[in-house]
UniProtKB/TrEMBL annotation:
A cellular-component GO term for this protein: plasma membrane
NCBIfam families membership: secG
GO biological process: intracellular protein transmembrane transport; protein secretion; protein transport by the Sec complex
KW Transmembrane (keyword) present: yes
Transmembrane feature ranges: 6-22, 56-74
Name under which the protein is recorded: Protein-export membrane protein SecG
Native source species: Lactobacillus mulieris
Higher taxonomy: Bacteria, Bacillati, Bacillota, Bacilli, Lactobacillales
Biological role: Involved in protein export. Participates in an early event of protein translocation.
Subcellular location: Cell membrane
Keyword tags: Cell membrane, Membrane, Protein transport, Translocation, Transmembrane, Transmembrane helix, Transport
């Protein structure tokens, strides 16, 4: 059981890296550089591929932490 959880944890961590690298980059214009990006940060809704990749990354992160907690529990026995 321990080895299965460890293998799943490694696979999920690789998928997190891939999902993070696939997310579209934000354009840094002069307004964001001067204001720190706080002026218009919450006013645009993410759509399409960007929203999908954010959801995939969130699900993978939750799965990663659940597997890590299960692995920590199993290692104490």
């Amino acid at each position: 059981m321990y080895n299965i959880i460890m293998t799943l944890l490694i696979i999920v961590s690789i998928l997190i890296v891939i999902a993070t690298m696939m997310q579209p980059q934000k354009q840094q214009d002069a307004l964001n550089a001067l204001s720190g990006g706080a002026v218009f940060s919450g006013q645009s809704k993410k759509r399409g591929f960007e929203a999908f990749m954010e959801k995939v990354t969130s699900v993978l992160l939750v799965l990663f932490f659940l597997l890590a907690f299960v692995l920590a529990y199993l290692s104490t026995k």
